[in-house]
Amino acid sequence: MVSLAIHCASMIRGPLAAVILGAVAAASCRATPHKSTSNGVPLLADVLIPASTTMVTAWDIPQDPLAEKSLDDSRLSKDIRWGYKLFTDTPHEAKQYAPGRMSCSNCHLNAGQRERSLPLVGVAGMFPEYNRRSGRLYSLNDRIVDCFWRSENGTGVLEETGLAPRGSHDAHGSSSPESRAPSEMLPSPTSKEVLAIAAYLTWLARGTAMGKNPTWRGQNTIAPSALIPVGQLDRRRGEDIFKERCTNCHGVDGQGVAVGDKKPGPLWGPNSWNDGAGAARVYTLAGIIRYSMPYLNPGSLSDEEAQLVAAFINSQPRPVFPFKPTDYLTDKLPGDAVYYPKR
After folding, report:
1. Which residue from 230, 220, 218 is spatially nearest to 308, judged by alpha carbons?
2. What is the Rg, in whole angstroms, of the alpha carbon atoms belonging to the chain?
3. Quick one: which of 311, 315, 312, 343 has its CA closest to 330?
4. What is the CATH architecture of 224-326?
5. Which residue ranges make up each domain of the chain?
6. Cα distance between residue 123 and residue 139, in whole Å
7. What pLDDT, in 10s, does the model give residues 189-202?
8. pTM of the model
9. Which class is domain 60-204?
10. Can 60-204 and 224-326 be said to share one CATH topology?
11. Spatial CA neighbour of 116 closest among 257, 320, 301
12. What is the DSSP annotation of 215-277?
């Protein structure tokens, strides 16, 4: 439309040409208004809630499939909507795979649509990609399974049953006359819950280029030059900072304080992520803390303070991931993987 107007204007001399171009420019601006949060904050690239916003955007979901009119009653649309529900309320929507109280959205804030809070908009097109922890290519579904097993402590059901060959209990606590193999108790890439979350994440990637990393991906990292050797991080200083800056939302016990219908996931203890999760690594957790916390003043902690708080949190007890011996067999064990025995 604009190029046609320019062509026409080039054939018309004088003030009339300026009027045509001015009208077209104004119409173009009206046709592409910038999107914003419910309180008027412009979205980053029209898709992400800015990292600098606080509690006023806690309930904002820029792309909400439950309110999206283009989704119909097809199986795919239903899976997209259920995937969103699974993502934002994992313990209730997939309680057999999330025995604790962690939801995907506890780490990926605003349903994976907030800047520097591990946003997932446009990320689906990057899979398959290499996973250093497992030493192989991962599909999107593989990555979702990993989150279930680790961040939601899905392997906790194995501990609950004791892997007993007889008289075991199912994920709901009832007796099972016949044993089930561990693989049958854990989510797989073809589990309906995994497929639904994959549908939601793929929906978030519509219109983006395949194989091109979004500019907002990988921004939750502290510069290598600012990293402090894990052995030099004073956990007691981290605890002091935690008590001063984090307890309004997370509580002194780290189990979370409810604000309306929002409540942070437990930072340690039996209902938190297990010790094989990405957040169980000090530098990984520090990157999340540095840019998305404290929630009422994100980005206000220094690189050092974020690492100290992460060292404190990851010195606390948490569920054990039973398959740690199979991790990092191809790539070197990271120095901040504090729950792994040194090799």
Report:
1. 230
2. 23
3. 343
4. Orthogonal Bundle (1.10)
5. 2-31, 60-204, 224-326
6. 12
7. 999 999 999 999 99
8. 0.85
9. mainly alpha
10. yes
11. 301
12. TTTT-S---GGGPPPGGG--HHHHHHHHHHHTHHHH-TTSS---BTTB-PPPSSSTTS--TTS
